[in-house]
Every structure is written in C-alpha cells, then in structure tokens.
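Reader question, answered in our methods column.
A reader sent in the components of a multi-part assembly and asked whether the whole thing could be modeled at once rather than chain by chain. We filled in our standard form and ran it. Here is what they sent:
COMPLEX SIZE: two components
ENTRIES:
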Amino acid sequence: MSAQDHAAPTPAFFLAGGTGISAETLGNMILQQFPGVRFVRQKIPFITSVDSAREAVAMVDATKTDEITPLVFSTVADEEIRAELMQTKCAFIDLFGSQLDEVERVLHREAAHKGGSAHAVRNQTEYDSRMKAVEYAIEHDDGASLRAIDKAEVILLAPSRCGKTPTTMYLALQHSIFVANYPLVDEDFESARLPRPIAPYADKCFGIVSTAARLSQVRGERRPGSKYASQAQCLYELRRAESMFRTHKIPFINSSAMSIEEMAAVIMQTRKLNRVH
Amino acid sequence: MSAQDHAAPTPAFFLAGGTGISAETLGNMILQQFPGVRFVRQKIPFITSVDSAREAVAMVDATKTDEITPLVFSTVADEEIRAELMQTKCAFIDLFGSQLDEVERVLHREAAHKGGSAHAVRNQTEYDSRMKAVEYAIEHDDGASLRAIDKAEVILLAPSRCGKTPTTMYLALQHSIFVANYPLVDEDFESARLPRPIAPYADKCFGIVSTAARLSQVRGERRPGSKYASQAQCLYELRRAESMFRTHKIPFINSSAMSIEEMAAVIMQTRKLNRVH
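And here is the structure of the entire assembly that came back:
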C-alpha cells in the first residue's frame, strides 16, 4: 500500500499569475487520469510578486503531512516568482517552464519570461466584440427578437429545453460570434417547412436535439406532470425536429451527451467559424 | 540570423482529443512569451482515433519548410494516439505527457492514459446548474426583473456600459453562479442611497466602474454626440457610483483595464465563491 492510498484526500493547488483558469483546466485534466484518487482542489490566482509567492508556498506547505504530498500545478511565467514557488516542499508541477525551454530551442529565441495571463485584456477591440456578441445573443435569445436576425452568423434551432441558450451564450462570450436562437414549437412541426422568419437563413442554421428521456426530465423540472414534459410529446418533437433538419440539410447535434464547450466546438468546426486570432 | 527569423510566420497548431480549449489556451500563453515572432494559429480538435491522428500529422507536416519548423501543442492523453502524433516532423510540444509522469511518481499510481477532455460533460447536475444560472442571469439582466433577486449570489452594480452583462454571463456560464445585475441611473445618483430594490442585499453587491474616457467612447458608439456619452456625464456617474460603493462598503473594480475573466476571478475571490468541484 502506498502512502497516497490513505483515506484523506490529496490536496491539489492551481497557482497562477493571472486568473488561474489555464492552471485549473490543465491540472484537472491530469487529475482526471487518476480516477481512483480523491483530491481537494484549490485555486490561488494573481500571484504577481515574490511576496505573494511566499504566501502561496506557506499555504500549500501547511497541507503537507508525512503521508500525503500535495500537488501544486503552476502556470506562473515570471522567473523570479517561479523560483520562489519552487521552494515548496510539495510536488511542484510546472505547466509552463519545461515546455517553454522546448519552444525556445525550436524558435532559436529566448522567451520573455514575463508574467502574464492567457485571460488578460489583449486589446480593446476583442473586448468590444465580445460585449457586442453577448448583447446580440441576449436580444435574439429564444426568438425574443428578430430585429437583426440577418446579422446572425449562426442560428440555433431546437425544441424547448434542448440547450439552445447556454450554447448561444458560450459562443458569444468565448468566441464573439453573433448567435441567434429560435425555438421550434408545435405549429412548426405541422409541416416540414422551416419557421417563416428563419427560412431565408437555412445556411446559417444549426440544430440541437436531445433524447426523449433527458428532455422529458428537464421539462418535468419546470412543469411537472404536464403534456409538455411527457415522454410522448418530447419524442414527437424530437422526431419532427430531426426530420426538419434532414429535409433542409441543417447539421445538428444531440445535446444529451455533450458539454456546452463540445457543442460549441462542433458548431464552429462545421460552420467554419474557427477564426484566426 | 536564425532560421525562424524569416518573414513568413511560424505555424502553431493546437491538437486535442476534446474541444482543444486547454491546448489553445496554454499554447497561446507560451507563444505570448515570444512577442517578436509572428504565428499563424490553427486548432485541430476531437482527435479520438489513430486515423484522425494520422490526418492531423499529415496536415501539420504539410506546413513544414526547410526554414520553418511549425509548433504542435498537444493535450492528447491517449497513449496510442499520442504515439501516432509524435511521428510528426514538426516540433511536438506535449502539454500532458511529461507532467503526467511526474504526478504518477508523486501518487505512486499509474495514470489511466485514457482519452478525455477537460470540457466533456462530467455529470448532468453540473450541466443543469449551468443552464439554470444562465437562465437566471438573462432574466435578471440590467434590472429587467427582480422576481428572484433574493436568490442572487452576486448583484453587479454599475453605470450603463461598464461591462455588467458580459461579466454576469461569464460567472453564470463558467461557474454556475446566480448573478443579477442592476444599472445605476441618474436618479440613483441624487443621494448616496442604494437603489431601493437592491438595498436589502448590500452584502451581495459588487460594483463596476470604468474610466470616463473609456466609458464615453463605448457610449458614443451607441449614441454619438449625446449628453449620455459626454465625458462630463460619464465622469459624474463614475464619481457618484464610486462614492456610493465606498459609503456602503461595496467592493468594486475598474473594468477598463481588466478582462472579463479577470473581473470574474476577482469577484469570486472577494465574495468567496471559489467553489470546490
């Protein structure tokens, strides 16, 4: 039996000079590779001085015991601060330094080794375009408005509660894409025609479906015991939606087994919206 | 003069078994350390088979020239697929494998080496809570509704166009936090009192300000030449807002030099919303 098999969970820290988003994401990907081990996670963002590095080290070292060595994932780029962090008695997993050396060799250049964040404001234009995309998404959510529907880069179509709204917000917020979304309702299912306001924009449409079981469960939370939430109604709507998508050659995905990030990535790939930035 | 100093930009690829979000984020953090080098970036997500790995290798290798070695950042975890990717003639920067070995040593465990994504659905509960938070945010955006204002975990307060809405959506979407936001308008500035509907929830409030120059510019895009967009009006509102925040001990940030991610990270840290997950 190894030391780390003990009942107590292993502390895992995510240290960063910025928001800690990258440290947490990549650290968690690594932790996922150890499904048998329990972890308690904590993020320590904005480590921008040697002093705050010293504080962070004191904090993580306080969790070390004879049995358990905590894991410290770091994306800190500043060399002086990194050197301070490496004083930790825990296991220091540098998500940045080792790769940086490799890239230096390939590029025949020295890295700046400056602190920084993947999530700092890079330029005002980028910020403005995110803001505009989010505002567009809110205005054009759930068919609430068609004012600037012609400006949409993607129009998400789906029966109620299949995940249109979060996917829309994600594409707007993370990728500054102008996304409208439009609900498919009973009257749309009477024919295989696209809803009239959307019909001119079939080439921008993207469908979302789900499974009847899942959709019925989600709808049931909102209106328990209703026809709207019944498996039969959900199955009917999903079949009609799918047939509409096929008729009009509208690509579609099933949201029941995908995360919002995955749906967004598929939509962008399919609609060729992977912008260079 | 080194090979990579040539005029043509260096191709940088982000390869992943999932969405490619982590590969792109961390890869870009590394590229940021080389401000003098021009890059063209491309993401290749969803590499989930040896065949798709082979295709990816063909694609990246096609961009290699005698002068320029492209950079290939990868977060692919599956060993067989990784082995295939390593056949590339480009520089392969493994954002996963080397750190995994280190963690294996610390934990005295073997990693599962299974493909996976930081952004796949982990459980339905997490997905549902994101959906609910996004719906809450849309309903309570810009003071549009006060229906469930008592359920808010954070209430963002700011003069118009300081960045309340995107920050709200980010907190909801990425962290499943119930966030309402409320605009401060002229009548709120007549006294230092909090707006009446918000007053009972001062301990949940968080303020956003900006600089007069920046705010005037943003407002000018919407209503050019208006009093609303004038520097004088912006300055007045920002000063009054700041004084209101100070009076009620409401923490606040200046959005003009921060990204949405940074604002979200500060708000969560200040309001102690860094949940364990």
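What stands out: Chain B touches chain A through 87 residues (CB under 8 Å). Chain B has a mean pLDDT of 90.
Send us your own complexes using the same form.
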